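chain below, 346 aa
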Amino acid sequence: MNDRENYLAAVEFGGPEWIPCSVSFLPGAWKRHREALEELVLEHPLIFRGFKKGSVDFDDMGHWKRGEYFTDAWGVVWRHAIDGIFGQIAAHPLDDWSKLATYQPPDTARFTEDGPREDWASVRRKVEAARERGELTWGEGGNRFFERLHFLRGFRNLMADFARGPPELQKLIDLVVSANMRVIAKWLEIGVDVMSFQDDLGTQVSCMVSPVTFRRYLKPGYERMFKPCREAGSHVAFHSDGHILEIVGDLIDAGVTVINPQVRANTLEGIAKTMKGKVCINLDLDRQLFPFATPSEIMEHVKNAVLELGSKDGGLMLSAECGPDVPLENVEAICKAFEEFCIGRR
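prediction:
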């Protein structure tokens, strides 16, 4: 199998030859470790496919620059306290419902949440070229949904809205979903293997909203976005930080085929009980463990995940995100564990 065939076999429980795995780095990790991290990446070509020396600007933090403000395409103002780390909101454009009548969302077919989008003719050429090379093709499903609601309203305001149910709430939900549907349609017109969505729905210990609230206000929106993807033959990959065990079944019902849950917030046992065999699990390994563990503890962490959630039929992937606080020896341990317990099966 090539990488695309193996990925799809994992998602579709078709007996992949190895467990797909990936390691990613926040910009702050590149700034801290620089050439040493680059050399480590180059030593693991099976994990970092196609990585080229000199391809990363170690000091490029994008708009994640300490002390600076950034206004996204939706008018949300962000302030960044740490280089290379997602910031916090300084101003919500719809903190008062009186502003909704004149509010205009961005044209998501022309703008990502961060700024102007690449020309679609160019995107199509890249997707078609990747398809001809036998590579997996990806699209992205807009500018978030639940997160976009509280980015616009403010978290406290949105929680009160869910409790009170003002008529403006459904108008805002429809506005965000409709904006996302414009970019979803563009990707599906081109045709991609996987559509990627993200929304952090949980805290460390619970969902941010009750299952009842989720089913009333959020699940219908996810169904509107996911259904055309599945009808077009694209898988739906959904990332969510935090505890989401109580709503996993609803996400699967809505159309999710690959789910990216955090292990610490949901536990291996909880993930096995609610997700194993029902949806492909792209397990987000323990980012809170990586800065402090020994390399041997990291190896054991990866091994336990594979033993608990793995199957010869598929349904498992592993991902590891490393911030600037993760020492290089632990990044190396993650790579070695992936090579031993995931790629080593091929």
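The beta strands are 21-25, 69-71, 77-79, 88-91, 138-140, 194-198, 235-239, 258-260, 280-284, 316-322. Residues 92 and 151 are 6 Å apart (CA to CA).
thats it, cya
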